[in-house]
Amino acid sequence: MIPEAREVHLSRKDRKVLEACCRSPVTLQRDLKRARIVLLAADGRSTRSIAKEVGVQPRIVSLWRHRYADHGLEGLQDKPRPGKQPIYTKTTDKRILKLLDKPPPQGFARWTGPLLAEALGDVDVQYVWRFLRSHKIDLVARKSWCESNDPNFTAKAADVVGLYVAPPAKAIVLCVDEKPSIQALERVQGYLKLPNGRALTGQSHDYKRHGTTTLFAALEVATGKIIATHSKRRRRVEFLDFMNSVTATFPNRKLHVILDNLNTHKKNEDWLKAHPNVQFHFTPTSASWLNQVEVWFSILQGQSLSGTSFTSLKQLQEHIDAYVNAYNDRAEPFVWTKKKVRQRRFKGRRITQL
């Protein structure tokens, strides 16, 4: 049953607005139909005739006649709709975050989406995954860190960084360390063709050992070039022999040598007295990452050692020597950009003792 038609009286201002709406090419169809309904109603047309001309149901015409008669142009706008109430709210998000701060169930190393959903009880696992993704929380990725407890961390770190950023004039700054026990492993290698036609390089899991070598290396900070030699062991005598070869490479030059806190690097006062042009600088405890040669060791591992096979220890040593020569041909110094040095402990640091 159609309600009794309401009379519609248009002001000049409202008529101009509605007529402009009908003429505009960007007016939405719903707004265009509402404007035409009100204009035709103001001309005295019946509800049924308006419905037939506009192409809508008579009840729609009656609705917008009443809405305009009661509220004017504002009545032609859509009213806010409450919509469906969300199942999960901010309270749910807080519950997930609170649960992540707790240890995982007994026997598990870390939380997973299903474990979180099971512990919450009333939250679907798909929502748990969406929440974790939206907050960029990765339950699988792991970061490790080493917090230095050296009381002189700031002074030692500033000393090392100072050598990188502002090295002494007419002096050579070297980063020295050793990479011990590099294994000469012989593996079966070749190409593997998958059913989809893709070819991959690979190696077998089984291998044969042909001994190990210890690589002593010195990185010249100003040029990025490497001085390296091999040794069977990494004792004090091998370290000092390597330092003798380094000093011979730079005769009559002041050398500032950056070392970590390995025992063989310390208590070498007699050797230092015999070489007054050499000064040792030690990184803070548990902070050997400050030594730039560690970066080069990582490059060596990735570009030269990973995925290779050697049939003898000599072949391994020659392989490393060839890489050092090739690296030195294109060596560039590492750029140290961080100038401020400060010691800051992790907030809420927890150490669990089992």
Automatic annotation (TrEMBL):
Q: Which InterPro entries match?
A: Homeodomain-like_sf, MscS-like_channel, RNaseH-like_sf, Tc1-like_DDE_dom, Transpos_IS630-like
An example Pfam family from this entry, by short name, is: DDE_3
Where the record annotates domain Tc1-like transposase DDE, the positions are 173-317
Q: Which domain of life is it from?
A: Bacteria
Q: What is this protein called?
A: IS630 family transposase
